[in-house]
Amino acid sequence: MSPSLTEPELLARALRHLTPVLDLLTDLGARFQDAGHELALVGGPVRDAFLGRTSPDLDFTTSATPEQIEAALAGWAEQTWDIGREFGTIGARRQGTTVEVTTYRADAYDPDSRKPVVAFGDNLEDDLVRRDFTVNAMALRLPELVFADPHHGLGDLAQGVLTTPHTAEVSFSDDPLRMMRAARFTAQLGLTVDDDVRGAMTDMAGRLSIVSAERVRDELSRLLLGADPRAGLELMVDTGLADVVLPELPALQLEIDEHHRHKDVYQHSLTVLEQAIALEDEPGTEGVDAVVGPDLVLRLVALLHDIGKPATRRFEKGGGVSFHHHEIVGAKLARSRLRALRYDKETIKAVTRLIELHLRFHGYGGGEWTDSAVRRYVTDAGPLLGHLHRLTRSDSTTRNRRKAERLARTYDDLEARIARLRSQEELSAVRPELNGNEIAEVLGISPGPVLGRAYKHLLGIRLDQGPIGQEAAAEELRRWWAEQPEAGSSGTEQERQL
Question: What's the CATH number for 1-159?
Answer without folding.
Answer: 3.30.460.10
